Structure formats: structure tokens, C-alpha cells
């Protein structure tokens, strides 16, 4: 197992980014690596970090302003070669169809439920590890 996994967190709201960090802890599950975070508050910062490489999973806030995480997800799925898996944070369970439209790999609702979030993030980290093995 690799020593750490890098998770990019995009939200214009520092409280949402903190919810993600707290729900993840050091690692979301015992069979995945410890997590390091890269936090972004703008869509341009997300693109810059993805272009730099080394991101294992993206967590995007669907409620972010000025561009929501679903729009960012659709853009990066089109523009980033070997785009990492994306977990979108949605405002309501009924918005799951929008997450599907954006090509997100998973979606969880806000506010972040630590158990649901950690399980979804761990699943994406396992998938990423399996693809790169």
C-alpha cells in the first residue's frame, strides 16, 4: 500500500472543507493509505493542481460559488487526462441525477455525514489503487 493518498478538496466555504477533513480523519478506512489534503477555493486552483498531477481523488462541493462542483467535475472529466475519481457533495438527495450528469464517481449530501463520506471516499481510493496496480 502506498504511504499516503492525496485528496483535492474544492469549496469556496472553509467550513465545508473542514467538514471533509474531519470526516476523513487520518484515513477513511483501515485498508487505504493515510490522506493528505490539497484545498482549493476556486475552479482555477483545481485545474492548476490537477495539471500538476499526483491527485488520487477529488472532493468537489456542488454548492460552491461561483462555479459549483458539478460543473467543475464535468469540465475536468472532459479536460484532464486520466482524471482521478470524483466525489461530489450535493445539497439534497434529489440532486443525485445532477451528479450523474456531471460524471461524478460518487455523491454524498451536505452537511457531511462522517460515516457515509468516509465509506464513499475509501471506495474511490480503493478503486484508484486497483486501477494503478
UniProtKB/TrEMBL annotation:
The modification 4-aspartylphosphate is found at residue 61. Residues 6-125 form the Response regulatory domain. Keywords: Phosphoprotein. The keyword Plastid does not apply. Gene3D superfamilies: 3.40.50.2300. Signal peptide: none annotated. SMART domains: REC (SM00448). The keyword Oxidoreductase does not apply. InterPro entries: CheY-like_superfamily, Sig_transdc_resp-reg_receiver. PROSITE patterns: RESPONSE_REGULATORY. GO terms for biological process: phosphorelay signal transduction system. This is Response regulatory domain-containing protein. It comes from Streptomyces sp. R21. The lineage of its organism: Bacteria, Bacillati, Actinomycetota, Actinomycetes, Kitasatosporales.
Amino acid at each position: 500500500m502506498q504511504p499516503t493518498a492525496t485528496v483535492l478538496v474544492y469549496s469556496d466555504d472553509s467550513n465545508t472543507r473542514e467538514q471533509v477533513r474531519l470526516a476523513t480523519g487520518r484515513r477513511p478506512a483501515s485498508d487505504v493509505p493515510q490522506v493528505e489534503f490539497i484545498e482549493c477555493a476556486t475552479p482555477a486552483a483545481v485545474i492548476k493542481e490537477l495539471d500538476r498531477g499526483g491527485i488520487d481523488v477529488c472532493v468537489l462541493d456542488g454548492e460552491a460559488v461561483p462555479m459549483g462542483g458539478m460543473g467543475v467535475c464535468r469540465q475536468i472529466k472532459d479536460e484532464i487526462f486520466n482524471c482521478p475519481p470524483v466525489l461530489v457533495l450535493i445539497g439534497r438527495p434529489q440532486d443525485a441525477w445532477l451528479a450523474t450528469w456531471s460524471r461524478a464517481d460518487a455523491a454524498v449530501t451536505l452537511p457531511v455525514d462522517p460515516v457515509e463520506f468516509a465509506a464513499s471516499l475509501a471506495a474511490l481510493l480503493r478503486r484508484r489503487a486497483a486501477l494503478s496496480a
